């Protein structure tokens, strides 16, 4: 856990590196995919890896971006032969759409289908849809709507209707409790790790870049009205708030500031639609399914009964925050790889043995 990491840091006197890392360290390519009529096209930012095997379509949580899957992508592609497509959902990351405030499940599900069609035509490879948080809910709705004819499997990560619905009352307060701007990208990354939002420094260094955008100092007046962003499942981490992370107005004349790319609080009217009924939709999906949870307390009644009846695979991961695939990318990759291999969706990558080991 991050608390242990920082205790170690102080003991050995080392200073951690909070500088951002490029997506190129984890993905093979980045593309901007255009969808719609020429005069009103929407543009979706996607990241790809791999060239063979099933297509893993990765949907991030609210307020995050496709880069939250970066470390996981390296981990999964080293275990099984597969292709990865991680996309910035509408209103998030570098995706630019005309109706960026339309977060309805129908619209967001259509986005997934449109991007895949634009990339692979009418006959894409076998698809395993994997979603975290809000992305997990959208994955369930996309599957339920049968928008992806070649879809063969579904993985939902830390998305449970019961706990998500209960969290609605405290979300806005949690959103308002975060810094509204940062002096630098490094400060934003450091805050994310020390606050417990992302407990894995490696992942934070690549993924926070997709959550934060640089602004000119003239925009600092508007930052006071902006609400910061998080996902819709609230984490009760130890409070971390240091004024040194927040841009000082006295220095505004000489510095740029970094603010959150999306004000997720404005999507409140869609929160109920994202999660209500998702447990039953998940159970009704007639495909192999895997549910990964940060804690057993997340499980609601419908899913508990369904799990006892063997309707889906489930795994509770070691202690981690809501950003499961960022906090524990190796463990999530192990679970997803086992799921893919069990259902023969993918083949394991054989370990290569060195010449020395063959002669021993």
TrEMBL record:
Organism phylogeny: Eukaryota, Metazoa, Chordata, Craniata, Vertebrata
Single Gene Ontology MF annotation: protein methylesterase activity
Domain AB hydrolase-1 stretches: 56-335
Protein name per the record: Protein phosphatase methylesterase 1
Role, per record: Demethylates proteins that have been reversibly carboxymethylated. Demethylates PPP2CB (in vitro) and PPP2CA. Binding to PPP2CA displaces the manganese ion and inactivates the enzyme.
Coiled coil ranges: none
Enzyme Commission code(s) on record: 3.1.1.-
TM ranges: none
Pfam families: Abhydrolase_6
Family: Belongs to the AB hydrolase superfamily.
Keyword Hydrolase attached: yes
UniProt keyword terms in alphabetical order: Hydrolase, Serine esterase
Complex and partners: Binds PPP2CA and PPP2CB.
């Amino acid at each position: 856990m991050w608390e242990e990491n920082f205790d170690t840091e102080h003991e050995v006197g080392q200073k951690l590196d909070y500088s951002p890392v490029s997506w190129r360290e984890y993905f093979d390519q980045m593309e901007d995919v255009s969808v719609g009529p020429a005069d009103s096209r929407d543009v979706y930012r996607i990241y790809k890896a791999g060239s063979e095997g099933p297509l893993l379509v990765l949907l991030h949580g609210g307020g995050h971006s496709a880069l939250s899957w970066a470390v996981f992508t390296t981990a999964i592609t080293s275990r099984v032969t597969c292709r990865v497509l991680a996309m910035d959902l509408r209103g998030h990351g570098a995706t630019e759409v005309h109706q960026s405030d339309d977060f309805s499940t129908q619209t967001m599900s259509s986005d997934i289908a449109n991007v895949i069609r634009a990339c692979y035509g009418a006959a894409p490879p076998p698809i395993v849809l994997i979603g975290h948080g809000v992305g997990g809910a959208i994955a369930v709705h996309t599957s339920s709507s049968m928008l992806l004819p070649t879809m063969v499997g579904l993985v939902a990560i830390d998305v449970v209707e019961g706990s998500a619905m209960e969290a609605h009352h405290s979300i806005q307060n949690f959103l308002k409790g975060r810094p509204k701007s940062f002096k630098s990208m490094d400060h934003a990354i450091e805050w994310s790790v020390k606050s417990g939002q992302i407990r894995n420094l490696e992942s934070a260094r690549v993924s926070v870049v997709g959550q934060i955008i640089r602004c000119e100092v003239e925009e600092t007046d508007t930052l006071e009205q902006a609400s910061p962003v998080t996902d819709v499942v609230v984490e009760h981490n130890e409070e971390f708030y240091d004024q040194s992370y927040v841009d000082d107005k006295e220095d505004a004349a000489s510095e740029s500031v970094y603010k959150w790319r999306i004000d997720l609080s404005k999507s409140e009217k869609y929160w109920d639609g994202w999660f209500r009924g998702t447990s039953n939709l998940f159970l009704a999906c007639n495909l192999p399914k895997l549910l990964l949870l940060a804690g057993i307390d997340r499980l609601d009644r419908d899913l508990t009964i369904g799990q006892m009846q063997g309707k889906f695979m489930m795994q509770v991961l070691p202690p981690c925050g809501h950003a499961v695939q960022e906090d524990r990318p190796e463990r999530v990759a192990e679970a997803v790889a086992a799921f893919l291999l069990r259902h023969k969706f993918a083949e394991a990558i054989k370990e290569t043995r060195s010449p020395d080991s063959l002669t021993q």
